[in-house]
Amino acid sequence: MGAALARAAQWTAAGSGTGTLEITPLNESLLNQIIKFVDDFSTRHPQEAVFVFREPLEWKTQLDCSVFGEGYEINGATVQSEAKGKDGQPLLLLTASTLRVRSFDQLSCFLQIAMEKRLKEAQACLEANRDPIVKILGPEYGTVEGGDMSMLHLLDKVKKNDDPETETRMKISRRLHQLDLQLLNSSLKQISQDVRLNPAGINNEVNLLKNFSGKGEDTVLESLEYTSDYTFSNGCRAPPWRQVHGEICYLVIKPHDTDPLYITCSTAGVFLNGVSNNKGFHGVIHIFITFQVEHITTVAYINSNGIQFVLFESAKKPTHEKNYQCMEAVDAKVSGQSQNLYDFTEKSVCEKVKSSAARRRSIDKKKLEPSMKTKGETSSYSTWLSSEILCHRRVEAIGLCRFEEVSESSSETEEDEEQPVRHQEGNTDLPSEYWGIQKLAKYLKGGNPTATVIALCSMRDFNLAQETCQLAIRDIGCLEVLINLLDTEEIKCQIGSLKILKEISQNTLIRHAIADLGGLQIMVKILDSPDKDLKCLAAETIANVARFKQARRTVRQHGGIKRLVGLLDCISVGSTSLTPYQAKDTEIARCGALALWSCSKSIKNKEAIRKAGGIPLLARWLKCSHANILTPVVGTLQECASEPSYRLAIRTEGMIENLVKNLSSEHEELQMHCASAIFKCAEDKETRDLVRQHGGLQPLSVLLGNAENKKLLAAVTGAIWKCAISGENVSRFREYKVVEALVELLTDQPEEVLVNIVGALGECCQEPINRTIIRKCGGIPPLVKLLTGTDQALLVNVTKAVGACATEPENMMIIDRLDGVRLLWSLLKNPNPDVQASAAWAICPCIQNAKDAGEMVRSFVGGLELIVNLLKSKNKEVLASVCAAITNIAKDEENLAVITDHGVVPLLSELANTNNDKLRRHLAEAISHCCMWGSNRVAFGETKAVAPLVRYLKSNDPSVHRATAQALYQLSEDPSNCITMHENGVVKLLLAMVGSTDETLQEAAAGCIANIRRLALATEKAKYG
Q1: How far apart are CA 573 and CA 577, in angstroms?
Q2: For the chain, what are the domain ranges?
Q3: Which residues are CB-neighbours of 839 under 8 A, at least 6 positions away?
Q4: pLDDT in tens, 45-72
Q5: What is the pTM of this model?
Q6: Span 903-1022: which CATH code?
Q7: How many CB atoms lie within 10 A of CB 64?
């Protein structure tokens, strides 16, 4: 168990103190397995269960004395078990909130008492006892990396100490070791599912390996080449028809010591061609490896015989020097190859950075004092401020960014990525503010610290929110000086500079310029400053600048996320009346939350926030009543809620209750972010139930009345949509008149709102009464009108809503009159598979409830051919929905004849070899109904559809059994099909289903067996007379 906790469990440390277990699906799985192990221990191993631990497991419990009953002695705030050890001490002792347990038996009983809090208790126990085996068995059994845990090692201990207690310890150790292996295996399976390669990552590895390839003795490979020089827009080199299977590119690797290796790189891994079951490619995927021990980075080539060649080793240095060292090490290995212009430029930059860094180190020793500077010293201050640092930082920022952009995967995708707006340059008609700032610039650049502070104060008197002033600061070179001021030791200069940067960084161009000049790196360092005002300003400025991808990456790579999370950790959380000291702490936390909010738009930053321990701190701040900090906290949470690990944490940390509570806030922005967080989290059923239990459905219903605020309306309707997935919530929404309110909002709304409204109506149609309400409120005409739209997400939802409404005959009459079925049919031509599938599902109830369905379907010119051709789709959902539609179409004999002529039989037969139960069910139903025409039964047999259908009977889905039995019954009318079924063992499978409680399944199974038996009797009669 110690190895699993050390290697597999995900730990974090927030602020200071020991690590805590993160709230992640992997950790939850590990905890549940440990709980099950302890639960079963007493019954499965009674002798070991009474063994008394060497030291008690001790932790802080959330349970109080009142939960303990029989078998325990309660005395005030103290509880002790009646069971005692040989020393007379109780095996369980609770004093205040500290719990001590000394046996598995008592541990099992305690977990039963804890009930729904058992997960939290198990987490607290393991956090307080990082290696519980030491406490249970003693230090000699502790988890040691690389230690001998074999059975021979344990048996050796028994021989040395031949007594019953040692034997018991050995048994417990063995069982705990088995648990360890079980936990490690399960975690490995879960982690391996998330590992995926991408074109950028593979390309980086290949380019780096090429630097170590060639004919020389100091190379590790003779050659490494792609099989294709053409690169598609997505970075792949594999042809499109192989990309759909996840393949990225193909490589030919020629080592010095073996024959050429032909490699396929795909999203699932790297594979050696011609080797089955992935055996034999171990040496290929480990051909290049980078690892760090202490601060030494080693890059080595490894093949199946072990390490063959160490490429280079380097000690860890400051970031800018470390990265360039790696580049130079790579370049040093490339011989006989011409360098391109980019390589030459980067090498020149390296040299400049090193010389500039050397000069700066000598200058840094002469930091200026705030007063008593001579004219010469002032000139030195000015020169250093405006040129030396700037030159060094600009070169460092450009070089570092270029190198790291090559090494970092481009998997981050942000929808909100901003592009800097380019304005027309020119000096015509510039306002007086522009020239006023230009006059101040000379004092800012050439003055002593006192003059600099005065110039900064004077600059703040201008309207810095005005774009003219912002661009003036950039154009006349003040922006570089402001950033350089951040790197001084003058607190007043730093504060003045940050106040200006905070204001002007609202401008997109300024944000990009600050990032390009290396300003973010300095602001991240300032977060460690003891000055609280300085930290606040730095965090707020980071919040403004980190609104685009490069800036967010810079903050993460320079340790900014961990520092920003640290700003949330203060003692004033939840306080209602704040002292001035606590108020300042709260302000620091607010600024930190603002910066995290901006940074959280990046997938990698979300993960970094979680690993830095941000979730529990955000949960704590969510309980406070100050809207100014609640808004960025909830904003960060709703941004991160797109990740499953955050949704799990929001649910388990009790945040749903606070989100629901803040839906009734007076601040619309806070309401919007709370509703948006619920929108994303309500994908999970447990969260939907919690929203209902905490009374969140009614405030959501009330907020529908605020139709003017479109952003709030989009978030609220989204939350209602997801909550309505649960039937219990739909009933509550009906009580609050939500359906009527949603129908009223169907017109004159932006598409992002309409998508959610229509999605909510589609879910509410689960109840027949709501379908009637939609009709009576006049909701069907606007829904049908939306079928003519172009937004893909809206079309998916509106087809579902129209299809749900069509299950009522009265609604179907209105849909048919408005030409809704024709519009649905036309959507089958949409290139989006989701729209195709949703339209096909909606067509099914339309055909079922139309008065003259056969004639209606025939009236669509080319409609039957279109739906038959969709059987060639590769999307399983499209195939299942089209099969369901064909089932309904085939109920009309004339339509069945038409689709038969269009080749429906061979197309259905081609789909028979599938493992998808949903497709199996609807495919079997379609085959069953298509057998009713002409020689289709014989045709299905000839196209080899019968044998795969027999295998469907082994499915675990009863609906698949019913549909398959009906199809087999129809097919068994043909003697050849009976023979095929019998050869594939259908009789034994059907006999078991004759006793089913499902009458339809009974009759179909019995009928099929009867047809097979009649054929057998006829054959015997013909053979023997």
Answers
A1: 11
A2: 1-141, 199-274, 903-1022
A3: 795, 799, 824, 825, 827, 828, 830
A4: 888 888 999 899 999 998 888 888 888 9
A5: 0.64
A6: 1.25.10.10
A7: 12
